[in-house]
Amino acid sequence: MKTCLVVDDSKVIRKVARHILEALNFSVSEAGDGREALERCREAQPDVILLDWNMPVMSGMDFLRALRASEGGWKPKVVFCTTENGMAYIRAAIEAGADEYVMKPFDRDTLESKLQIVGVA
Ligand SMILES: [Mg+2]
């Protein structure tokens, strides 16, 4: 079973993502901010990370930079979640080490196709 870490400060988004990912046969864990996500990754690097941009404590971008600089931190594929007005950040996120991005709100088909693109679904 592939593992996915869902990183988002919205409990509702995490719940929706978990529902979709479990239907796609992923084992899902959650983090509410970047710092918590780094701790999860230190315990075990997931196969893929679904990453929100705006979060308290540590943003998605700061998390991504710290992850990629850490040992084994290039293992997880990172799908960065953005909203339409966050489009300007996509290039920066890709440069920081994100593999793909998905627009919020996403549905099962969209998420599945992004997971296929990064090679985990
Ligand atoms: Mg957020």
UniProtKB/TrEMBL annotation:
Keywords of this entry: Phosphoprotein
Sequence ranges assigned to domain Response regulatory in this UniProt record: 3-119
SUPFAM superfamilies membership: CheY-like
Recorded superkingdom: Bacteria
One Pfam family in the UniProt entry: Response_reg
BP GO annotations: phosphorelay signal transduction system
Residues with 4-aspartylphosphate modification: D52
Name this polypeptide is given: Two-component system response regulator
Organism: Sphingomonas lenta
Phylogenetic lineage: Bacteria, Pseudomonadati, Pseudomonadota, Alphaproteobacteria, Sphingomonadales
